[in-house]
Structure formats: structure tokens, C-alpha cells
Amino acid sequence: MSAPAARPRDPDRDPGLQPERTRLAWRRTTLSGTVVAVLAVKTVLHGGVSAAGVVACALCCVLWLGVLGIAHRRIRTLASAASPAAFAPRHAAAAVLCTVAMAVCGAALVL
Question: Which residues, including other chains, have CB under 8 Å from residue 103's CB and lie 6 or more apart?
């Protein structure tokens, strides 16, 4: 069995569109994380202050800062090069971990 043939490059394709879409997706992600962090603070302050609530809220805010840092780094990378480097697996894993942990903290605050 032979290897698949390489796809010819499309001369009409604008290579600037993919980094722009990725940048916008990171902006939406940080906006969603901001909403989660603000709602976590509101939940803790509105529902009565408890030690567990404050810890979950603080952890949620720290995780939000982590997502914000990862997104900012990726957006800077996309803007700085004509052909940006691939997203490092450790950064992707950190982004997923922060997002899942933030969802768990949010669920703990609601329950």
C-alpha cells in the first residue's frame, strides 16, 4: 500500500485566517472563564461566606488566571510569526486541566 499523495496547496487560501480564528477562539475562552470566575465570586458572597466556598472561589480565580496566561501566550505566538509554531502538548494539557478544574469548582459552589 502506498502513502497517500500530498494535497496540492490551494493558491486562493489565505493562511492568515486560521490564526485569526484561533485567536478569536482563545478570546471567547477567556471571556467564558471570566464569567465563571465572576459567578463564583457572586455565589460565595451572595450565598453566605463559608470556608469551603472561599477556597473553591479562590481556586476558581487562580485557575482563571492560568487559562488567561495560557491564552495570552498563545495569542502572542500567533501574532508574532507568519507561520506560528504548533501548540505545545504541555500547554494544551494545562489549558484542559484548568478548564476542567474550574468546572469542578463551579459545580462545587452550586451544590
Answer: 36
CA 76 to chain centre: 14
Entry pTM: 0.72
Cell of 7: 494535497
Over residues 4-38, the pLDDT tens digits come to 555 555 566 566 677 788 889 989 988 988 888 88
CA distances from 61 to 30, 83, 93, 106 (A): 12, 33, 19, 11
Closest by CA to 37, choosing from 68, 73, 71, 69, is: 68
| CB burial of residue 47 (10 Å; 0-12, 13-18, 19+) | exposed
Asked if 70 and 91 touch (Cβ cutoff 8 Å), the reply is: yes
Locus of grid cell 495570552:
72
